[in-house]
Amino acid sequence: MSTKITVCKDETEIVKELCNLIEKQSNCCLEKTNEFKVGLSGGSLIKYLVNGLPSVKTDWTKWRFFFCDERLVPFDDNESTYGAYKRDFLSHVPVLENQFVVIDPTLEVEAAAADYQQKLEKHFTMGQWPKFDLLLLGVGPDGHTCSLFPGHPLLKEDKKWVAPINDSPKPPPCRVTLTLPVLNNAHCVIFCSTGNSKARTIKRILEGNEAYPLPAALVKPREGKLHWILDEGAAECLDRN
Ligand SMILES: O=C1O[C@H](COP(=O)(O)O)[C@@H](O)[C@H](O)[C@H]1O
Questions:
Q1: Which pLDDT score is estimated for 154?
Q2: Model ipTM?
Q3: Which residues contact 159 (CB under 8 A, 6 or more apart)?
Q4: Domain that residue 115 falls in
Q5: CATH number at residue 149
Q6: Does 229 score more than 90 pLDDT?
Q7: Rg of the Cα atoms in the chain
Q8: Which atom of ligand 1 is least distant from the CA of 139?
Q9: Nearest of 63, 61, 87, 82 to residue 71 by alpha carbon
Q10: What distance in angstroms lies between residue 32's CA and the mean position of ligand 1's atoms?
């Protein structure tokens, strides 16, 4: 695995860097296969994608979108990640709703996770960990990524592709999330994180050598590429500064 860290001076540069990498990864993948399978995250990532993806040159009909995690709330709730993509992304990027593989928010959390894994199984080879072409991840100020939180037993999940969580320390409490073995099987993972409120956490993730690493520090795709895109605020505690 190779890790590349890019520090950008402002939001325009972040969007450009992120979308250049996404364009390269999509075109490289679509030269070899007929589908580009992307895992999306929620939070601050959405605005960068909405700003940058419209200018990406690719065959959008071949993209399939999944969620790295999703909050178990109705799609019209402000906390819903798919709800946010439906509201903000679909009006800017030339893709259709049926290109998104979404959870069933009417189910209980255990059933929603099992149902989402079954939906994934239709797009990946059974009996192996799913191999996403690209995962787009964010990091919370506590070092969580997806809905994998520091010290949570889900960090040890080694069987399921998708796990339920009903005690998320960040609301809403019920969510479903991809597990670490899935994240670490991807062809390419891009983290995007901004703001100096996350600077100490980013230092712990990228430079710490901790006995119990933060969840985002556990994402190290075995055979894939790992990119970190930061702004100067998020990077301000790194040794390079
Ligand atoms: O709760 C969540 O938070 C993380 C980080 O969000 P950010 O706004 O701090 O970038 C996000 O990646 C995840 O998808 C979401 O459910």
A1: 98
A2: 0.98
A3: none
A4: 2-174
A5: 3.40.50.1360
A6: yes
A7: 17
A8: 5
A9: 82
A10: 31
